[in-house]
Input
Amino acid sequence: MKNKTFLDTNVLLYMYATDEPIKHNKAQAILHEHENIIISTQVLFEFSNIMHKKLKQDYHSIESALEEFHTIFDIAIIHYSTIKQALKIATKYKYSFPDSLIVSTALEYDCNLLLSEDMHHNQIIDNNLKITNPFLD
Output
């Protein structure tokens, strides 16, 4: 049985959040609780954008974080086929396109678990992928 976990952007953001210690600690614990963790180029983009625009981090700090992610996680590349599948997922499951692209990428890279606080907790996608909110009590 495959054992791959895909992380949504919010999990990475909480790894750096100092204003939410409970979520920060949980995000840090995820690194030790899961093997074969995958993120995507989309997640890297969203992380970088939020860190710079909302959290006012400089690009040098963001680059250091991205380098750390590069050494810890496998990074999935978004392909045209991923985008086409995301459109189908958006239609079928009524997720936004960015969330559907996350789901599509997780499916394409054979993940069985997607950790996100933004999607429906415990939903199963196409009998292959379970979405879990790791920040629920």
Notes: DSSP finds six helices and six strands in the chain. The chain has a mean pLDDT of 95.
